[in-house]
Structures are given as structure tokens and as C-alpha cells.
Write a structure and sequence with these properties.
Length: 543
């Protein structure tokens, strides 16, 4: 528990104040008889929040930071008989300094680590909730945003009812059973949204219910046509899928091309062989007969020409022989490829009579069916994701409502008991009604008075203090001064008998009942008044 706070800037009539010490039960910041304002009551409660790891003393009490300037708050907690000393600066409040018994600095820790220290030493073993989310909601101080008497679950005005209810479930350790299911709901929605985006960007087909029906009709038509093709091919084509059919069709096309190529090569070879078989007749024996008709012919010239022809024929015959060998080799390669292709086609199990055209038609239809089925599967997948997300959300809501029912009943029973103590069983208690996981109301039936509403807020906080590991409670005078004298007296008694720490601020007014005045005086940890006894020894709102 918190055992002391000290600061060099705490002044009373020109002198430094001694350390402010605390105890279990009620700890009162007591004002004067006249109810003076701006003497530091709320500021001191902000400092209490500051030593419990809050930041509002620096970020919201701007007049203090301006008028007092940079300063250090020193404080100590006691756990299991051991006192731990710390200091925290207002300039760099993101660190807390661990100190020795005389507040000499030892080491620094981040504010996050300091909050973990408090969480561990208060022995708060709650999953999924931070120390500040536990205490911050129930430190109700003027200047913070959790003073709305009809919204006691809220830590700030902007918080949603759902988040406020979730925080309360966590504090009562009733959220863990739904945490995994809540995560499953979140992941399911993310998966559905991701799939929808993939459809929007055309990475996945997107069709509607009408197109689904059209696809199913077209698939039935295509399957009928495939059956006809299969029967026409002797059922041999039935076992082929689209890729296999395309492969076999490609093989048949290649086979036809190679066969045509072999035919052209064989035609060229026959032409070359015919040229090789041609034997040019020798003309020497006919030269004499030529003279009978052309007595003046130059036989020697003719013989030279004939000799040239024989030489040319010899060269051509060599080239034809080479062309024959080359064509023969190419034909052999073509025949080897034909044999290989025929072997591959036979391995598919198809009879040779199945034409390439049939295979291509078969493949095209199979491919169209695959595309239409892909569209249909995408539609079905999206529907499945929608159903799964909805189903998980329904289960989550049912489980949350069950937990909320237990939570609501436990709090209302406790508030009823405390209200009976305050009013002797004569008045209706405040009622927390959590209609849904994202909506709640808090009111006292048939009584909307200001004092009753703030009394209900106090009883709610006291119920939470008793029922949960919440280590401390802070109520500013802005809450308590709205409550009537008689119920306030009983509330003071409830504060006083708490085994935990309660910090309040109130003025010592003579109008309070005698017992209330006695409790205030007995539990006062610091007295504040104007004229030099303000928290910092002066007031800066005077001209």
C-alpha cells in the first residue's frame, strides 16, 4: 500500500511540510470550515494518481506546472513488510527512480516497468488488462473524464460502451473465457475482408447468385457435350483431364508437322536420286556423222565443249551425293521423332483414330468447365466465410451475455447490500443494466436526483473495490458534496472499514453530522486552507 508522499514544494505557512503518511481504509484530504477553493485538495489527489503511475498531474494540472515549476514527487509503498522508495520528476515523467531509504537515487525504470512493479506487488493476476486500466477508472478526480455519474464504467467520455464493459469483465476476471473466441471472431472477419478485397482487385473471381445459377446450367451443358465426345472416341478420352488433352493434342499436332516434314524430305531425296540416275550420252561417235550435214563444223571445238560438260556432270554428281546423304540423315531423324511421338501418344491410352480436333474440342470444354467451377467455388468460399464469421460472432455474443449476466448480478447484489446499509433498507439501490455487450445503463429506479446519482456512483465503486483486486479508490469532493448528510455519514463508515486504501477530498464543514466530522478528522492525512496553508503554501488565483 502507499505509505507516504513528500515534496520539497509542499509548504505550510512558509515552512516545508513533513511527509504525508497514509494507512489502510480512509485517507482524507481535509479542507477548512469555509470550504475554500483552489487550496490544493484536487491537486493532491492528482498527485496520488501520479504516484500510482498516472500522467494527468502533469498533462492536466497545467496551472500547477506553470506556477510551481519543475519539481519531484517522492513516495513509498509497503508490500509484505518491505518499504520501496521512489521519486518521479514532473519534467520527464516517463521514468520513475528507485531510491534508498533517504530518497537517494539508485536506478531508473520506465513508467511501463513501474506499473508492472505495482501490478505484481499488489498481486493482481489478471490477464489482458493493464494496471492503469484497473486503477485509472476508479480514481475519480476533478479535471479527469471519469466523473459522469451515469457512466461509471467509462474512463473517458469518448470511450465506447463496449470497451468500458470489456474492461469491467477483465477486472472481474470474466473476460478470459471469451478472449480466444473474440480473437477467432476478429481473425474470421479479417479473413473474410481479405478475401473480399482479393475479389475487388480481381485476384479471385467475384460473381453473384444469379451468375452462379447460370454457371451451373452451362457446366451441365458442357458435361453433356463432353460425354458425347467421350462416347464418340470409344470412351478412351474419358480419363483425360484438360492438361492431358492439351498435351496429347499438341503431340498429335507435332506428329503431323514432322510427318509433313518427312514427306518433303523424301520428295527432295527422290529428286536427287533421279538426278544421280541420269546418264548424259557420249557424243564422240556421232561427230563424223555430224560432218555429213555440216562439213565445215569445228570438231575440235565441239569436243572441248563436251569435255567441259563431262567435268561439270562429275561435280554435280558429287554435290547430289552429298545432298542424298544429308537428306537421308534428316529423314532418319524425322522418323525417330515420329516413332517417339507415336509412342507418347500410345502411352496416353488413346486410339490413333482420335483426331487432334476432337482433343482440342475436348480440352476447350474442360477448360471452360474449370473456369466456371473456379468462379462458383469463389462464390461458395465467400459464403462460407460469411457464415463462419456470423456463427462465431453469435457464439461470442452468447458467451459474453452469459458472463455479463453473472457480472451484472454480482455487482447489483453487492450494491443492494451497501445501499441497505446506507439507508437501512428503506430506499431502492442503484442498478447496473448491461443490455448487450455494447450497451449499458446505470441509474437508481424512480429517483434521478443529483445526490442519489452520485451516491450510486460511490456505491458502485465500493462494490468494485470489494469484489475485485482493485487496490485503491479515489473520490474527489465534487462527488461527495452532492450527497446528503445522512447517507454521507454511512458512506464514510464504509470507506473507513475497507481493508484497502480509499483517498477522498472534502471540506470540514460544520453542517455534517457529528460522526462524519469525527471520521473526517480522524482519517485526515493533510489539512489545507487558504492564507498560506494551501498545498504549495500559496494561491495563484488572487489578483
Amino acid at each position: 500500500m502507499l505509505v507516504e508522499i513528500r515534496c520539497d514544494e509542499f509548504i505550510s505557512y512558509g515552512e516545508k511540510r513533513p511527509p504525508i503518511t497514509f494507512h489502510t481504509g480512509l485517507n482524507t484530504v481535509l479542507g477548512d470550515e469555509t470550504g475554500s477553493n483552489s487550496i490544493g485538495k484536487s491537486t493532491f489527489l492528482m498527485i496520488v494518481d501520479f504516484v500510482f503511475g498516472g500522467n494527468d498531474y502533469v498533462t492536466r494540472s497545467l496551472d500547477v506546472q506553470k506556477q510551481v515549476g519543475p519539481h519531484s514527487i517522492q513516495f513509498a509503498f509497503e508490500f509484505n513488510g518491505k518499504v520501496h522508495h521512489f521519486s518521479r520528476e514532473t519534467v520527464d515523467h516517463t521514468y520513475v527512480t528507485r531510491c534508498d531509504d533517504n530518497y537517494n537515487p539508485i536506478s531508473d525504470m520506465t513508467i511501463a516497468d513501474y506499473r508492472k512493479f505495482l501490478l505484481g506487488h499488489y498481486k493482481i493476476d489478471l490477464p489482458l488488462i493493464s494496471f492503469r486500466d484497473i486503477v485509472g477508472r476508479y480514481f475519480r478526480i476533478y479535471g479527469r473524464e471519469n466523473l459522469e455519474e451515469k457512466k461509471p464504467l467509462h474512463s473517458v467520455r469518448q470511450e465506447t460502451d463496449k470497451d468500458a464493459i470489456t474492461a469491467l469483465l477483465k477486472l472481474f476476471d470474466m473476460y478470459a473465457p471469451v478472449a480466444s473466441l473474440a480473437e477467432a471472431v476478429t481473425n474470421s472477419k479479417k479473413e473474410k475482408d481479405a478475401y473480399k478485397k482479393a475479389q475487388d482487385f480481381h485476384f479471385v473471381p467475384k460473381i453473384g447468385k444469379r451468375k452462379l445459377a447460370q454457371n451451373e446450367k452451362r457446366i451441365a451443358e458442357l458435361q453433356t457435350e463432353l460425354l458425347r465426345i467421350q462416347r464418340a472416341s470409344g470412351e478412351q478420352i474419358m480419363g483425360l483431364d484438360t492438361q492431358q488433352a492439351q498435351q496429347v493434342a499438341a503431340l498429335k499436332q507435332r506428329l503431323g508437322n514432322v510427318r509433313r516434314q518427312r514427306g518433303r524430305l523424301e520428295s527432295q531425296l527422290r529428286a536427287v536420286e533421279n538426278d544421280l540416275a541420269f546418264d548424259n550420252p557420249r557424243l564422240e561417235n556421232n561427230f563424223q556423222d555430224l560432218l555429213l550435214f555440216f562439213p565445215e563444223a569445228n570438231l575440235k571445238k565441239i569436243e572441248d565443249i563436251e569435255r567441259f560438260h563431262r567435268q561439270l556432270a562429275h561435280v554435280l554428281n558429287s554435290e547430289f551425293e552429298e545432298a542424298k546423304q544429308r537428306l537421308t540423315a534428316l529423314i532418319k531423324v524425322a522418323e525417330e521423332e515420329i516413332n517417339s511421338l507415336v509412342k507418347e501418344i500410345r502411352a496416353s491410352g488413346l486410339p490413333p483414330k482420335v483426331s487432334r480436333g476432337v482433343l482440342e474440342s475436348y480440352s476447350t470444354k474442360k477448360e471452360e468447365i474449370a473456369f466456371l467451377e473456379k468462379e462458383n467455388k469463389a462464390y461458395q468460399k465467400m459464403e462460407e466465410l460469411k457464415v463462419a464469421a456470423k456463427s462465431l460472432e453469435v457464439r461470442l455474443n452468447a458467451l459474453q451475455e452469459e458472463q455479463i449476466g453473472f457480472l451484472q448480478s454480482e455487482i447489483n447484489v453487492k450494491m443492494n447490500a451497501l445501499n441497505d446499509y446506507v439507508y437501512g433498507g428503506e430506499k431502492k439501490p442503484p442498478v447496473l443494466t448491461i443490455k448487450k455487450p455494447n450497451s449499458y445503463t446505470f441509474l437508481t429506479p424512480d429517483d434521478t436526483g443529483t445526490g442519489t446519482s452520485y451516491k450510486g456512483l460511490v456505491l458502485f465503486d465500493l462494490s468494485v473495490l470489494e469484489l475485485t483486486p482493485l487496490p485503491a479508490l479515489v473520490h474527489d469532493s465534487v462527488i461527495l458534496k452532492q450527497i446528503g448528510d445522512e447517507p454521507l455519514e454511512r458512506i464514510m463508515e464504509l470507506y473507513s472499514r475497507s481493508p484497502k486504501q480509499v483517498f477522498i477530498a472534502l471540506d470540514k464543514k460544520g453542517s455534517y453530522l457529528e460522526n462524519t466530522q469525527e471520521i473526517l478528522e480522524r482519517t485526515a492525512v493533510i489539512h489545507l486552507s487558504d492564507g498560506g496553508n494551501e498545498l504549495f503554501g500559496r494561491s495563484w488565483n488572487v489578483k
